[in-house]
Amino acid sequence: MSAPMTVKGIDPNLASIPFWREVLVELRKSVGTRGPWIVLGVLGLVWLGVCAVALSTGTLGSFGELLTSFGVMTRIFVGVLAILLVTSEWGQRSVVTAFTLEPRRERVLLAKLTAVAIGAAVIFAGMLVLTSLIVAIRGASFADAADAIRGDGIRALFDVLMAFAIAIAILNTAGAMVTYLVVPEVIVPTVLLLGSIGTTAGEGTLFEKVAPWVYPRDALSGIGQVAPDAQDWGQVLVCAVIWIGLPGLLGVYRVMTNEVK
């Protein structure tokens, strides 16, 4: 006769998983598959190309111009990495394991956001180091460094938060990438330009009136100035509500309420 099986219940006094450990897990996930490494590899090739052009060109612009050259493509790749970290688990259904080990979904979301922010900060720091080295080697000007770091830093933060918000709102890799890469940068300016056709000279086109409030590239262009005014910051705030706040709220609701199978 076999011995009776003892069933252990859940001990409510056990300590929960430390948040820092959840962040480390998410950081490991961010580079744990082939996709992120491919993205990082392509980004490395882009950086090598920018370095080669900057070192071989006859005259090199200022620190700000070179940082912008690095930043234009870097922000896209960082956004793609943020999307992959969020949506890959939903596509492969491994999110079931994540929510089983940590049922508090808000902590999982916060850990992913923290991991995304850390990864973006590391990449941005690397971009700053490369820019500084090239500018120092070529003897170019550092005069606009402070304004450039502020402007490009805020734009990088805006883009990675927008990518994260869109990812949790859509929870699908292809859909999130298309939305992130096409809607704000292609569809929105195209619609505004089409709406500006036929505008009488002197009246101000629809693009001129609306783009600074809804088109991220225009909205964030003012903060790279020496002294951005209240309207510049107001345009950034409105654009952030549209592209980060609204999809972020939708995404939090979906993640917290979606049935995971």
Helices and strands in order, then pairings?
Blueprint: H1 19-30, H2 34-56, H3 63-92, H4 95-101, H5 105-138, H6 145-170, H7 173-195, H8 206-214, H9 216-219, H10 230-257
Could you characterize the architecture of this molecule?
The protein has 261 residues and is mainly alpha-helical. Helices cover 75% and strands 0% of the residues. The protein contains 10 helices and no strands. The protein has helices at 19-30, 34-56, 63-92, 95-101, 105-138, 145-170, 173-195, 206-214, 216-219, 230-257. It starts with 18 loop residues before the first helix and ends with a helix.
Number of helices: 10
Give the overall average pLDDT.
Answer: 85
Q: What is the chain-wise order of helices and strands? A: HHHHHHHHHH
Radius of gyration: 22 Å
Shape: globular
Fraction of residues in helix: over 70%
N-end to C-end Cα span:
39 Å
For the biggest sheet, the summary is: none
Quickly give the structural class: mainly alpha
Proportion of beta-strand residues:
under 5%
Q: What is the oligomeric state here?
A: single chain
The tally of beta strands, per DSSP, is 0
Low-confidence stretches: none
List keywords for this structure.
globular; 261 residues; mainly alpha
Q: How would you summarize this macromolecular structure in one to three sentences?
A:
The chain has 261 residues and is mostly helical. It has 10 helices and no strands.
